[in-house]
Specification:
Blueprint: H1 2-5, H2 8-30, H3 36-53, H4 62-90, H5 101-104, H6 111-130, H7 133-144, H8 149-156, H9 160-187
């Protein structure tokens, strides 16, 4: 427990930061992630990092520090999700599949890479909208929300094999659509 090892002054600093910035910070995070659960997880990570740092170094501008940490956590979460989707889009051993990793996972953020990342996500969601509702929903639940097939089967009453098949069709469609985007981006 934090209170057992943390001096009262530092504990008060954390409590004051939560009171002062908690609501605004949660709103900031919610605008930049898919779900309230993700926003709450990121906010919890920010508070945890604050509690760890406040014991080791002084923070001159608490608000700026909190928003910077939140931004970094959001970027990390999006980068992880993007890496997973890029693996999926490239396929297991499909050498003809698009490989967005070079384009999207560069270390530096420039206006061009930011534009391409936004374009990738936009095109992904446009391609998802082209799918039949059942395929789209299974893909979103399984890949974007991280829900296991067994849980989806319980929710829908569908056979797991049916769900796997629907996701497979979705993946094939997305690979084809993202390949078009990849070719457009690499031909200029």
């Amino acid at each position: 427990m934090i209170t057992a090892v943390m001096p009262e002054e530092k504990q008060n600093h954390i409590i004051q930061a939560i009171k002062s910035y908690g609501k605004g910070l949660l709103g900031f995070i919610r605008k930049r992630v898919k779900s309230d659960a993700d926003a709450e997880d990121i906010l919890q990570d920010v508070w945890y990092q604050l509690s760890a740092v406040v014991n080791t170094e002084p923070i001159e501008q608490t608000g700026a520090w909190l928003y910077k940490v939140a931004t970094n956590k959001i970027i990390d979460k999006n980068r992880k999700k993007t890496e997973e989707l890029l693996e999926l889009a490239a396929g297991d051993d499909d050498e003809d599949g698009p490989d967005f990793r070079e384009i999207l996972l560069t270390e530096g953020t420039t206006p061009e890479t930011e534009y391409i990342r936004n374009l990738f996500w936009e095109q992904l969601f446009i391609a998802l909208d082209e799918l039949p509702a059942e395929q789209r929903q299974v893909f979103i639940w399984q890949e974007l929300d991280g829900i296991p097939f067994n849980e989806i089967a319980e929710r829908t009453g569908e056979n797991v094999q049916t769900l796997v098949s629907r996701k497979r069709y979705a993946v094939l469609h997305l690979r084809k659509r993202l390949k078009q985007l990849y070719e457009e981006l690499t031909d200029y």
